[in-house]
Each structure stands twice: as structure tokens, then as C-alpha cells.
Design brief:
The structure is a single chain. 26% of the residues lie in helices and 27% in strands. With 117 residues, the chain is of the alpha+beta class. It has a single domain, classed as Ferrous iron transport protein A (FeoA) (SH3 type barrels). A 6-stranded antiparallel sheet has the order 1-6-2-3-4-5. The relative contact order is 0.20.
Length: 117
């Protein structure tokens, strides 16, 4: 395993702002299924957003979604560092759309009614 991926490091060892590509998951059963459901599949780009005050938990951006994992869980994910993926750059993929929606009053009808009268 280590001969195939000499540069693979645990996801928990990356600093905020670092980006990587997932190499493999070391886990079994429900834990592995949960990570796969969250998008932690081989080849997926992931970026470290921030650490909590005591470095546990850690927030990651994967596939445009923000996911928080405990440090112990992130140790089971092996990654290789890469450039920051487009979907996880500062501001996010839809930051402009959210501002646009708020400015023009799009959203749930109950929210529009409450604001207008």
C-alpha cells in the first residue's frame, strides 16, 4: 500500500487552507459507509477550512459542501496534497447567487409575507 502512495498523509495532518485529493479510506462498516455518503471517495478534491480551538473537530470543503469531522475520523482518510480545487475556493461556488437571492426577495413565501407586511 505505501509503495503505491508514497506521498499519502492523513487528512487530519493538513493545515487550514491546504487542499488535497483523497487516495483511500481506512475504515470498515458503518463508519466507511458514512464517509462515502458524505463524498469522501477516492479522487475527490477536499480542502481544510478551519480547525476548532483545540483542533477537534475540523471543517472540510468537499464537492462544494462543508463537512465537519473529528480528528480521529480524519486520520482514517489518506490524501495527497494538490492545488486548491475550484469548487472550494474562498467564497464558495454559489456565494454570488445567495447574495442575489437575498437582494431580490427570493425565498420562502412566509418570509416574503413577513418582510412586506
Amino acid at each position: 500500500m505505501t509503495s503505491k502512495t508514497p506521498c499519502a498523509v492523513p487528512l487530519a495532518s493538513l493545515a487550514p487552507g491546504d487542499a488535497a485529493r483523497i487516495v483511500t479510506l481506512n475504515g470498515k462498516g458503518g463508519f466507511r459507509r458514512r464517509l462515502l455518503d458524505l463524498g469522501f471517495i477516492a479522487g475527490a478534491p477536499v480542502r481544510v477550512i478551519k480547525h476548532a480551538p483545540l483542533s477537534n473537530p475540523i471543517e472540510y470543503c468537499i464537492g462544494g459542501a462543508h463537512v465537519t469531522l473529528r480528528k480521529e475520523e480524519a486520520e482514517h482518510i489518506l490524501v495527497q496534497q494538490v492545488a486548491v480545487p475550484e469548487c472550494c475556493r474562498e467564497g464558495g461556488a454559489d456565494a454570488g447567487r445567495r447574495r442575489h437571492r437575498k437582494r431580490h426577495g427570493w425565498g420562502p413565501r412566509w418570509l416574503q409575507r413577513k418582510a412586506s407586511g
